[in-house]
Amino acid sequence: MRFVIAMHMGCIPVVTSDHVVQPLEGVVPFEEFAVRVPNRDLPHLVALLRAIPAHERARLRLGMAKWHRAFIWCALMPSSSGKVALRGARVM
Hints:
Blueprint: H1 2-8, E1 14-15, E2 35-36, H2 45-50, H3 54-76, H4 82-91
Parallel strand pairs: 1-2
Helix pairs in contact: 1-3, 3-4
């Protein structure tokens, strides 16, 4: 749910878990709107995020605008509607 709230607030999601499958992983192209940071790089997280160029942040925000609806749907609907959410995400 924090992921959805961050996107709703206009924040670029930062995924910091090496072995966690994110919602809609494999359906939604995370590389279009999120930054992935391996656990081993967490001590340098602030520097890594500050080093992202403005044009890259703009590209990620455009990706968020494109894909955020898929995550809002999944956060608000019960788990039994997961198949419908996946179909909706593929259409976007």
